[in-house]
Specification:
The structure is a homodimer of 244-residue chains. By secondary structure, chain A is α/β, with parallel strands linked by helices. Chain A has 10 helices and 11 strands. Chain A has a single domain, classed as Alpha-Beta Complex (putative 2-phosphosulfolactate phosphatase), CATH 3.90.1560.
Chain lengths: 244, 244
Amino acid sequence: MSEESPLKIDACFSPQLYSVYKDEDSIVVIIDIFRATSAICTAFHNGAKEIIPVATVDEARAYKEKGMLAGAERNAIKIEGFDFGNSPFDYMGEHVVGKTIALTTTNGTQAIDVSKDAYKVVIGAFTNMSALCDWLVSQNRNILLLCSGWKNRFNLEDSIFAGAMTAELSKRNPNYKLGDACLALDYLYQMAKENPMKFLSRASHKERLHKLNLKDDIRYCLQPDLTDCIPVLENGVLVKMKLR
Amino acid sequence: MSEESPLKIDACFSPQLYSVYKDEDSIVVIIDIFRATSAICTAFHNGAKEIIPVATVDEARAYKEKGMLAGAERNAIKIEGFDFGNSPFDYMGEHVVGKTIALTTTNGTQAIDVSKDAYKVVIGAFTNMSALCDWLVSQNRNILLLCSGWKNRFNLEDSIFAGAMTAELSKRNPNYKLGDACLALDYLYQMAKENPMKFLSRASHKERLHKLNLKDDIRYCLQPDLTDCIPVLENGVLVKMKLR
């Protein structure tokens, strides 16, 4: 990166807006707090070898039929016949160790799909936030926080996490120039951080998960720093980043 | 509208996302605070008869060549050869009384263009906020706050205004169900309302306008309730709404 222009952080609220924010120099952080990116971090923390993100259920099924483990979620529900949905609790335990898993979700894997040609694509969640921020700051690059949203709509939980990332990154390097979305999210996170669970109580997707009795999932996904794993996309496949 | 499901308010941060939020029953409020929608309200308050919003400079020029008044702005600057840019101060005075004006702007007229087939499209700004909220509540309809943004990106001033609208509408009718974007903006506005000018000091477009020495425009556009005019789109043309 040139030394003259300041490093930038911006946030994009929907995969459908990615083309507007696209910038070949940026590292893209994929965010789908409830629950895809939280689950992906959990899988690698528990020893998964690779996750192949795919956009459609048919693609995931094709992997499954070849004998691979496969996860598929639509509208917050695990699709029948698959090994996993997108609950982090599905990805804990011996059954994921050393495994390659194909995964499709309503929102998160769509965000990976649109940004797959970026300079670098990494996976962010509250559960790996500090490790991710440390690494991002060390890279000296522009950062784009890509919120998966809900079916291309803005959602509150991804936005609050993007606000938390903005705050943490700015703390580590106060020279980042923040785009308008990050300025807004930074303020929003200041209001949310005391009690994110309560702050999210009126959010549409929390309501959706609450109806499905997924309160434990919500609580888990809002816990910071459970892992140092940073999942990174390499040749279309997510692997655990090797840090020095 | 059915009596069973609650009335909804949602906000869309970019014309490029409109297709996701589109809903045939909603009233769409077009928001481009710096400066198109503020200027449009000013024009009607000063007696303009009609404003024809057009997407391209060529279309505006065609109207101009037919002898009509025409405004054209790109990148915050009035285009040479046109009668107006998008400064509200351009639209004050005798020269607009009874006139039809063609207008194209970087963002605002694009937002009108994408939503023109909605149930109803109205123009919102701080300068007509109370009159607009009173009317919207009386309509008993879903409301979509369509932020024009900056070249399809989220911007802070349109978002804060959408937050102000959310707060004012909810005050008048606490039964509106708020989409996630409105929940976020409602919080954001609570932080901004004491001093919007200061709150916006780091915003990208305020910086842009500040460089162009447009501080008076910024101050004017943030003043609430200078007019009762509600511009409404009728057959592709903006006119002043006739209230009972």
